[in-house]
Structure formats: C-alpha cells, structure tokens
Give the backbone structure.
Amino acid sequence: MEESGRVIAVRPETLRAFIARLLTAHGLPERDAGTVAEVLVEADLRGVESHGSTRVAGYVSMIRLGLLNPKPKLEVLRETPSIAALDGDNAFGIVVAKHAMQLAMEKAKGAGIACVTARNITHTGMVGFYPMMAAREGLIGLALNNGPAIVPPFGGTTPTLATNPIAVAFPAGEVEPIVLDMASTMAAGGKLRLAAKKGMPVPPTWALDRSGLPTTDPEEALLHGFLQWAGGYKGFGLATVVEVLGGILSGGLFGTDVPPMKVFGKDPLISSALYMAIDPAHFMPLDEFKGRVDRLVRQIKSSRRAAGVNEVFVAGGLEFRRHAERSRNGIPLSEVVYRELSALADDAHLPFGLAEPDAR
Amino acid sequence: MEESGRVIAVRPETLRAFIARLLTAHGLPERDAGTVAEVLVEADLRGVESHGSTRVAGYVSMIRLGLLNPKPKLEVLRETPSIAALDGDNAFGIVVAKHAMQLAMEKAKGAGIACVTARNITHTGMVGFYPMMAAREGLIGLALNNGPAIVPPFGGTTPTLATNPIAVAFPAGEVEPIVLDMASTMAAGGKLRLAAKKGMPVPPTWALDRSGLPTTDPEEALLHGFLQWAGGYKGFGLATVVEVLGGILSGGLFGTDVPPMKVFGKDPLISSALYMAIDPAHFMPLDEFKGRVDRLVRQIKSSRRAAGVNEVFVAGGLEFRRHAERSRNGIPLSEVVYRELSALADDAHLPFGLAEPDAR
C-alpha cells in the first residue's frame, strides 16, 4: 500500500458486495459489477493493493468521463475452435479479460491449446487473475496486455510501450499453483512515489532520469524520467513480445499510437490483450502433470538459502500466503482508500459500512 | 567470442559444408548433419558465437562418450491437429528442435495456434533459430527449453534450473523480423570467463557468490558461485515458466532431476523443450499484420536516444546487421575454434581448408 498511516480491516465479502453495488449504481450490469469486485478484492487479498480497491475511484471517474463504457457491446471479430478475436467496445478490461480467458479455456479443453485476443478494452486489473482461472480448472493459463505509451525502448527516451505485464499460472496438486504475474519493468510507478514521499533513494535498476540514464532519485524519475525495464534489454524484449501479441495481433492500438496516460481515471486507458490456455491432459494424465508441478515446487522450496534469506518462494507463493492471512483477518484498507470509497458511497447515495466492529 | 587473439575469416558456406561432413563422419545421417551445420553457422553469422562452431568439438565428444545419439529413433508420444509430444531418444537437440518447430508450424497453419513438446534431447543450439523458421513463413514462433540444474532459485543456493532460454519471433513486412532470444539469467557463463581472464569486475547484476549474494568478482562466481537471474525474481519466475512448459509438460526431466553439467561435451546435457506457432492469418490478413509489425519497429527505431546511445535496437536487430556484415565479409573464427576444427578434421581423416585465400 502506498499510503502510510492508519489501516482499517475489512472483510473481503463486505468489500466485494460494496464495490459491486457501487458499480451497479454507475450503470454496470450486475454480473459485470460482480466480476470487477471479485478481481479487485482478489488483488487486495493477495497483497497486490496497487490493483485492488484503490482503483475503484479511478474506474468510477472513467465511467463519468466517458472513458469506460459500462454497457459495452462485445463483438466477436473472428472465431474458430482454437482462436477468437474480440472487440471490447471500450469495456471494463476486467470483464472482457475474464470472458476472453473463459473462452480460451473452453477452446483449449477441445483443441489442447487456444488463444483469444481482445482489443479496445480498459484497465484489466491484476493480470494474474486470469491465468489463475485456468489453473483452478487444471489448465495452464497465460495473459498479457499492452497499454498507454509511457516507457521508452531500451536505449531511448520516447515513451513507446506500457509496463506490459505478463502472467502465467500452472495447476498443482497438493501445493498452491505456480503464478507468475509481472510487469516487464523492474518496479511499478507506485514504488517510486512511495520512495519519493519518504525521501529515500531507489535501486539503480528501477528508473531512468530525463536523459535516459539510470537514476536513484525517485523525484527525477517521476517528474522527468522513466521506468526501467527488468533486466534492461531483456525486459524491453519481453515487453515488445507483449506489444505484438497483445496490441498487434488483436487489431488494437499499439506503440506510440496508444494515448499516453498521465493520471489514472482522468486520461484514456486503452489496452489490448491476449489470453491463452493449454490443457495438460492432452499431453499426459492431469494428475501426473500436477504431481510433477508439486515436485518442482518442493525442490525449489527446499533449496539451501542465500545469506539473509528466510524462505525461498515460488512465483505467487508469497501472495497465496497473504491471501490466506487476509481471508482470516480481513483486508487492511488504507485510510485514504477507505475515505475514497466512503465518498463514492455518499455520491451514489449508498449505505457505507465496511469496517468490522473490531476494526483497526 | 570468448578468446582474444587472431581471427580467421571463414566463408559461411565453407564452414557449413565442413561441419556437415565432419558430423556425417561421426555417424549422423546427412540431412541431420546439414541441419546442425546450418543452425551453428547461423549462430556464428548472427554474432552468437557462444552457440556457433565453438560447440562442434563438444558435440563430437558427446557422440564419442555416448552422451548424444547420432541415429536416434524419434518417437511421437501423442499427436492431435493442435499438439504433439515427441521423445528425442537422446538425439541432437538441434535436429529435434527443427523438426518439432516445423510440426508446430504446420499445425498452426491449420488450427491457428499449436505447440509441440520434445523430451530427452541434448543441446538445442541458438534457440532463436526455431522461431525464426516460423517468422520466415509468416508465422509467430516461440521456443523454450530447460536443461542441466546449474542456477539456484531466487533467494537460494541449490542449483535447480538451467539458464532456461526463451525465444520468440514475429514476421515483418519491409523490416527484419523481431527476434527475441534470451536466457532467463542476466549474463552467460562465457561472459564471466572472459572477465576473469581479463581480471575485470563484472556488473553486480550478473553473478552471485557462494553465499548467494551479488558479487562483482567473476572468479568467485565461476568457482563457487552462480549466475544471477535477469531482473532478480522476475527472471527466476520466467525460468520457472520455461521449466514447466519445457521440462514438465513434455514428460521430460526437470529441476534437480536433470543431471548438472560441469563441462560441455564431457557431462550429460539433457534438455526438454516446447515449440509453439501462431498463424496471424487466422486473426487478420497477413500483410496487415506484417505492416503493423513494421510500424512498431519504426516507432521504436525512431525513439529519441538516451545519452551516449547511438542507435535504438529492436530485439534481434543487432544480430540481423551482423548477419549481413558477416555474409559479405566472412565469419571471424577465433584461432582456438579454428584449431579445434582442424584437429577434428585430422582425427576424422577429412581435408581441412576453411580459410579464405585472403585470410589473415
């Protein structure tokens, strides 16, 4: 969470119900509002607060400004047993993403592997949510999307790509699924803002100054500079792959043609995406596959530990632990987000009462 | 090239013919020998010398030691219109990889998307070669493979995964294809060996010492330490994805079950892989797709440049330039590799005469 200060413990089901009610009040069909609430609260539960209920105010603002279509007409541009291409009509990215992944999963069960593109959508929330849908059904899932042109190519200073996230999930048997959910950049903008607020330097691998050179000054990076790719040219290469599979193959906007976004909720956020599923049962009995994933996870977990490291984690492992802890103890909403939601409730003439009797 | 010193300019077609003849003498069917020669020389042409003719001596050693089966019986374990699973019978990884990608491409033309796994193969050479096959035919290609357990998980010190490369290529129209070909680690072992030889420190993002902490000392890293993942936990997450798609889905060895390799050519090198193809023509007219890729490449190339940068490159762009230069002027073979090949020619009672009349 970016903001320091007081936190309010909130039950996930209470938060989910409130967000769904609020979005319904802003014109979303009930089912879609439920989907958005589900994905946001899942992010909060996993500790990915940057993609949780902190986004609600921005989403509502986008609806009000006409930047997000609450009642879109989803168009199927192409469809075969193995692929589909969707046009989102400027819909909630989250709603289209879930639908597209579901479609890819159904097709993968038949064909073994399938993918579905979606163009003209908005913010897709926590990208790892969609491959996790696949993993829950014993499938391998992959999701990626492009977005506003804010990060320059490696060696350049013209904002050209988004942070271009990629997420993959694998079903396991006795252990939690493996869930990789990463941006192609090393750090998120939120981490820079937090460091700037504290007056702390950032690692030299996080950001670039205005001339495109690494900087440890978060202020310089935020005001005049850029995010840095993870692993330099390697992260840029991955982001390029995401740009082509998400932005180009979908028929959507890509590169510098995607309007840059300065302020979330106030500026257009146009994204295009690809969702892929593979059914391991087309390669071996599903239980065998899951058992093999379990074995790899156990090998990794039992690695000797580097100096100063308490535990070795598999991708997504820390998030599953947070999810369990927060499912028991509630989601620690920051006071800032709590007040945002409270103000949104007032605006929409909705009752507001997220906090537990024993909160704080 | 790792070795400093004299270089000998060699014509690619001469080098290709020699390698093919040599491998035929060591029991490879002519067609397979031609494939291996083609992939190795392509690596030399692209400036990826670490995966070029420097590998020939190791391959011959592996054949002699029974670590590589020159006359394998490739088995098709499963096959549908969208997927296939192959067992390589300890074959040349390069031969099986090319065959598997070809199969994935044919299936993708029918289904839109397809993938083929291959287990029990050896070194696959320059991984980018296979997706480039797809790009040449107007398809999107992806290749990845696991291998000997030499790199510990992020935060650990038990060697568990290989450098787990991933390669993707996209067809373009008027510009060169986009070709990402990267290891999940930040630097290759060869770069550490070169720095050690020169007595130079390496960047703190390349390697770890024996306790798993970043080190700039290449000697420590080579003798007691490890390679570092690109982008830390991000590279490790990608490597995990490669391990599951390559090692687990194929039914091959994975994780610490893959024998670690200390010396290339002397120790077993067992790998498993996945090859995927997508046909953009199932999504839009191929020319439209290619034109869109061209547009993205041009946007990237025309980025303002960071301080000290002369040119912004798209993934694979530098390699295409080297390829053009070396196709004209010959491949600069190091004296070490030249002598290795010469000795192999003597051993096999083959004539040897790679150098051009005007070679230095």
Observations:
- Chain A touches chain B through 79 residues (CB under 8 Å).
- The CA atoms of residues 11 and 330 of chain A lie 5 Å apart.
- Chain A has two domains: 1-64+333-360, 73-185+229-295+314-329.
- The radius of gyration of chain A is 20 Å.
